[in-house]
């Protein structure tokens, strides 16, 4: 394993950002390669601690000569967001200098060719970080971008071109659900990892062995030693299932038995009023159409001071807010409906 330091120059003299990069060299030239990064949204740490738990497993595999494909690991991909504290609160989702989400505005290349990328010396510091992350990841057969939601199940976003070929990965990781998407108008890192292959010839695209996914490792507070160890096992099983690491002791993953649904089935449930949220449901709950999901207390103590929110269709609760104050129009939760949402959104679901 080789460790190197990536440096991103800041926007004024005396400021620069650094993050470590770890490379394991594979011994099998035909084996798939893998790139793992965590905490692009810099405060989302379940993936960071999962990688921390995975690294000794990779080191052991390397010592035993079982790493077949090259593996690149970036445990904390966003040193800019990592350093952003605003009035005492960490703010790792948006770059404070540009108000741009750290997981939007990635370059969506027409082909998987790093020569098409913008110059890494151009643009604002967050743009340069994004260009560098695409440069580092492009060309790997497997690209895993580890995030988390507010409160939620473990789930994956997967482009329709990779499904059901990636069902073994979902099963290996042990996630609860897979959300399928088809268009990226916002430039997510996952979009930057898969869209360049959409018009590539089959021998380049290799969609049967390609993996690109945004992994949502539950909620922002699910930073926990036992979960990290379990998630590291899941990542390891994926790497073995796809031939990046050899491990004859592991059985092949079984069928994926979790929820699989297109993004258009998700009900985001905007709050009708601003106030305090009393949830009736939590992630994993199965609900029927008409079930009460939450009550918003908008005028405490007053007649008609509460507004109830009901499920528009049958489905399963995927996520909910981790805070309990809500603005009018802000989304209360994600309900994966059994059919298309009347409020279906295209592209990314949230800012
Ligand atoms: Zn995120």
Automatic annotation (TrEMBL):
> Which InterPro entries does this chain map to?
AstE_AspA_cat (IPR055438), N-alpha-Ac-DABA_deacetylase (IPR053138)
Keyword Metal-binding listed: yes
- One Pfam family from the record: AstE_AspA_cat
Task: Tell me the SUPFAM superfamilies matching this sequence.
Answer: Zn-dependent exopeptidases
Residues forming the Succinylglutamate desuccinylase/Aspartoacylase catalytic domain are 31-192
An MF annotation (GO) of this entry: metal ion binding
Q: Which UniProt keywords apply?
A: Hydrolase, Metal-binding, Zinc
Q: Which domain of life is it from?
A: Bacteria
- Identify which cofactors the protein needs according to its UniProt entry: Zn(2+)
**What protein is this chain from?**
Succinylglutamate desuccinylase/Aspartoacylase catalytic domain-containing protein
